[in-house]
Amino acid sequence: RVRGICMFNAASGMNSRYVMNEPQWDPLQRALIRFFFTALDTLIFKNRFVLEYLLDEFVTEDLLRSSLRALYKNNPDRVDDELVKSFFGPAKQEGAVDALGQIYTNDPGLTPMELHSIYPEKLDRIPLQLVWGDEDEVAPVTGAVGTYYLNRARDEKYPKCNLKIVRAGHVPFDDNPEDSNGALMSWLAEC
């Protein structure tokens, strides 16, 4: 039985299908974005030859290190060789091309907002703690999902929803483990 949920960054689908359905786009923007991502998906992510070439020729440990450091806003020095290798190794293994293609082109699943509207009797009755990095540029707290949870946490109708913003980027539990774990532990003590 679930007695509570703690999420460190409640990011949603990370592919073009999710991006195309973001609520902030007007119809013209949505059409342009749909065209762009359909072309991108067709030319790269659904094209095994091109995707394999890009992974083989352009994905290096230095590129991954730079990309990961951009996610660690509070403490980029936490991106060490071990972390880089944990991403680089799988990117070079058999099946990486297929996995990456699927990540960017498959159904991203339901958004948190959709899940809450479908299962309110379950999701609204259990304690929910969200820990979010204040400098998260991938899934910013000012984006659709972050705003949704900020509003829920402030709404008296949802007293079991709590959102704690910590000084961190997209990976708060690793970028700032002290504050992230502190938020988790104080929430657990209250549950």
UniProtKB/TrEMBL annotation:
Gene3D superfamilies: alpha/beta hydrolase (3.40.50.1820)
Coiled coil spans: none
InterPro entries in the cross-refs: AB_hydrolase_fold
Annotated protein name in UniProt: AB hydrolase-1 domain-containing protein
Organism, as annotated: Ditylum brightwellii
